[in-house]
Amino acid sequence: MAKWGEGDPRWIVEQRADATNVNNWHWTERDASNWSTEKLKGLFLAVRVENEEGVCEVTEVSKLDGEASINNRKGKLIFFYEWNIKLSWTGTSKSGVKFKGHVEIPNLSDENDVDEVEISISLAKDEPDTNLMVLMKQEGMKKIRNAMSTYISTLKTEFTQGMILPTVNGEQTEPVTQLATKAEDHKTTASTVTAAPESKPIGVKIPTCKISLKDIFLTSPEELYRVFTTQELVQAFTHAPAIIEADKGGKFHLLDGSVSGKFIDLVPEKQMVMKWRFKSWPSGHFATVTLNFTDKGGETEVRLEGKDIPSSEEERTKQGWQRYYFEGIKQTFGYGARLF
């Protein structure tokens, strides 16, 4: 028998004069409704499919009624979610004719497997028949189902961080910090990445360096380019307000202003060139960042080349791009793992 105070801390019920719920031993609940609303919107608005007939894409989340929560009882997490969803989609034929339609998901809930969730896809009233309906019902439905699967998996991983915190010698261990799941939480996380000495005045010459990164995303160059240049989708993967003017010379502000710059050149599906900076860099100093998108047949290779990066910021800049851009996109839209 273990001595008093020894043993697995998850199994120790501690008496506290301040009535603190140590280790969440008693029933606790975390509301995930607001987080789920933003996550689902971002995932559904990224749905886009294309074939020889044309293009179909989800253009609006017109209804998102429901709730989600996570309950913790004696170290066991219990997930509850129930959503009634309506989406609007637009199809554009190769000849440029547009068609509008609707998607209804009456019961996305924890009681059903994703493959069992009912998805109804239809054309809007008075719209003529089109072969784009076949594209939307086949490939579009797969993308919508994948979006739901990604939501459920991130709900059970990303949002649950810190819900089970065992104690050691009476002191609570700190949760591992990861990409924030709410815009309001992101201010704390972003501050970790952007912490640096105060900005140096204009005119101070600083040593600079170059960086290179490469990553693979399980989506098409067209879809990935759209994620980088659509304001709503950028807000979805950064979990923070953003301003994106996706035109040559257009400006952008991300992560509550921690990152800013302007687009120098944009070649859809191929390349993005931008002047880019952290807020904490010397005033007026911008790096030049180029993203090249290469179609790898069902996958997209992204190569990042950055120059004029302050030498003292080399690792921080590489980690910021990898974590807040690349990993953020994969986690939000499911582009990092195959879903079967």
From TrEMBL:
Belongs to the AHA1 family. GO terms for molecular function: ATPase activator activity; Hsp90 protein binding; protein-folding chaperone binding. Keywords: Acetylation, Chaperone, Cytoplasm, Endoplasmic reticulum, Isopeptide bond, Phosphoprotein, Stress response, Ubl conjugation. Residues 29-161 form the Activator of Hsp90 ATPase AHSA1-like N-terminal domain. It holds the Pfam family AHSA1. It is found in: Cytoplasm, Cytosol; Endoplasmic reticulum. Acts as a co-chaperone of HSP90AA1. Activates the ATPase activity of HSP90AA1 leading to increase in its chaperone activity. Competes with the inhibitory co-chaperone FNIP1 for binding to HSP90AA1, thereby providing a reciprocal regulatory mechanism for chaperoning of client proteins. Competes with the inhibitory co-chaperone TSC1 for binding to HSP90AA1, thereby providing a reciprocal regulatory mechanism for chaperoning of client proteins. This is Activator of 90 kDa heat shock protein ATPase homolog 1. Gene3D superfamilies: 3.30.530.20, Activator of Hsp90 ATPase Aha1, N-terminal domain. GO terms for biological process: protein folding. SUPFAM superfamilies: Activator of Hsp90 ATPase, Aha1, Bet v1-like. GO terms for cellular component: cytosol; endoplasmic reticulum. Its main location: cytoplasm. The keyword Endoplasmic reticulum applies.
